[in-house]
Amino acid sequence: MSIAELAEIADIGSPVPGSSPALGISPDRKRIAVLVSRGNPGENQYCQRLLVLPISGQGLPVEIARGGAYIADDYSLRDFSFVQAGWPRPNPPRWSPDGTLVAFLRREEGRTQVWLADPDGGLSPRQATDLADDIDAFAWAADGKGLVVATRPGIHVAARAIAEEGNSGFLYDKRFAPQLSDRPIPTGEVTARYTFASLSEGYTRVATAEERAILAPLRPGKTSATATMWRTGTQDRLAWIEPKEPEQILSPTRLVIADPDGRRRVFSRSECEGIFELWWSSDGTSLMALQRTGWARSRTALLRWDNDEALPERVFETDDVIAGCKSAGREAICTREGSTRPIRIVAFNLGSGAQRIVYDPNPQFADTRWGEVRRLRFRNAYGVESFADLVLPPGHRAGERLPMVVAGYSSRGFLRGGTGDDVPIQPLAARGFAVLSFARPGFLPAVREARSEIETRTLLEEPWADRRSVLSSLEMAIELAVGSGAVDQRRIGITGFSDGGASAQFALINSDLFSAASFTTCCEDSGSFALVAGPRFTDYLRAMGYPYFDGAADAFWQPMSLLRNVENIDTPILILAADSEYEAALDVWETYRHRGKAIEMRVFPGETHYRWQPAHRLATYRWQIDWFSFWLAHQLDCSAPRMPQYARWLAFPGAPERSDLHCYPPASTAP
């Protein structure tokens, strides 16, 4: 697999494994509408297609709409109302009740509205709503004559107020987070507005309570106040998930089923913990669930409850990621992805678990030679279950020791590029590297009773105990990889994104295993990191025990600070930063550059924490391969446009001799 193929992979919904897929099943349970998105690095855009395909898997998909701008998701962050994400907004197509139309969100000219498409592809798609605000979510009215839509007018109201404040200068206060914005960010909850839009008569009005409940169902009265997920079945049956210890944020969960006769059945045994999706079969007789289970919750199980069973039947269990399941007769239609299988739509028989492929959006990979994947399972020095995947090149010969790159900090589903999709795992393997796809271990036992995120740190006896636990797991995974005979322990590189960046930073300081490093999020320290995060975040971190700009800071930050350990670190460092985050690395970059260390930083414009632009993703893949190839394998991309970078790198201390470098791919010897 090449980096171009990886950057152009087709996604169903979000590229984040396990996210809710963008698919909808027709009322007659015979067809699926699915949004497929493919990155186009050359144009730095996405090709987005709305397809209709038969659930039977027989016949070709019909394209019923194409185009529209990328719709980025957003989320609330602590008290900030609105922070833009890099992943796409959930956008499942929704069939009209009579099955004659498919509705979906589409963004044109800076506005997100509902559009309608003909499921047979005979008519061009048309815009159905024309509201002043972007539409976040929608649903069909019960009679199919209109739509219920949700918007947030408060976002624009707050933005206008902030713009007016700017005329007299912004007060720098807790509304600021410089790495997110150069002006105050709206705070507090933004209330959703629910509107009914008539399709036949073209008017809009405030949605009634009944209409609003279609889009935002009220919590059923039978459930507990702490229920986090509930599903209604036939004959007024109800099932929900609730925490066993509601005050604990890490509480295990249990399942509750309420029968029509008023009886409640509570399933508290460990075999029922870890459920993350719940639905009823089409006939309402069976309750189905997806569960994270097995070693370090690394596996997915499909469970089924029939009638009065005390425990569910485990239909099947797999290392793959299953998500978005919906009932269709005796089958569940889901997405599935494995370590060497990109996302596909599959149908599972609810009785036997037998699988059939409904749709593969990436048939071009049918003959791809994948790197071999070996799952490593172990307990770290703190007794915490851990796992990692060791990926070896296709055709790797036993006994051949390879340079290795560590990617993190999750390792579920298709091994694409780590949590931030910034480390090209399979292309690195194809280039002759081993890759350790490392999964961050869970929390230490000491924090199991934490009642807040702050307590997940303050309950620890030692400030950096969690980082030491992560490092312990990482070192043990590397030891197992080296012990396999496939890895050269003198040539190991490490990468870091988000929390994984902090873990990589800690590893560089507290371990001597790594000969090269790259960060797409850097750097967590007592200076720039605190400043660019803004007052709200630094106050939050102070509550967790992090000191900033006072006498206790030096000793506290010594195990974590790249600045305070500059004399001890000679590892070459590459920083590939979003323009919204690079300021956090400026003190490290300047200090290391001033001390003559090997460090380089590139800044990508218009990016969020999770980078979303296809051109930047492809470039990030390329820089990762070039950097680690140079330092760990002494390889060069000898094409003329790449030579200036090697001139810079050869001038770094510790760089290989020019005579030790060779081109990749090797020059052809053919006549």
What features would you describe in this structure?
The chain has 13 helices and 37 strands. The model has no long low-confidence stretch (mean pLDDT 94). Helix 6 packs across helix 7. It is α+β, with helices and mostly antiparallel strands and 671 residues long. Helix 13 links the parallel strand 36 and strand 37. Among the domains are: 139 residues, Neuraminidase, CATH 2.120.10.30; 293 residues, Alpha/Beta hydrolase fold, catalytic domain (Rossmann fold). Helices cover 18% and strands 33% of the residues. The strands form nine sheets. Strands 28-29-31-30-32-33-34-35 form an eight-stranded mixed beta sheet, sandwiched between helices. Strands 1, 2, 3, 4 and 5 form a five-stranded antiparallel beta sheet that branches.
Concise synopsis of the structure shown:
The protein has 671 residues and is α+β, with helices and mostly antiparallel strands. It has 13 helices and 37 strands.
By CATH reckoning, the class of the domain at 372-664 would read Alpha Beta
Q: Which spans of ≥5 residues are poorly predicted at pLDDT below 50?
A: none
Structural class: alpha+beta
The strand count comes to 37
Assembly of the depicted chains: single chain
Organism: Novosphingobium marinum
GO molecular function: aminopeptidase activity; serine-type peptidase activity
Domain Peptidase S9 prolyl oligopeptidase catalytic: 478-633
Protein name: Dipeptidyl aminopeptidase/acylaminoacyl peptidase
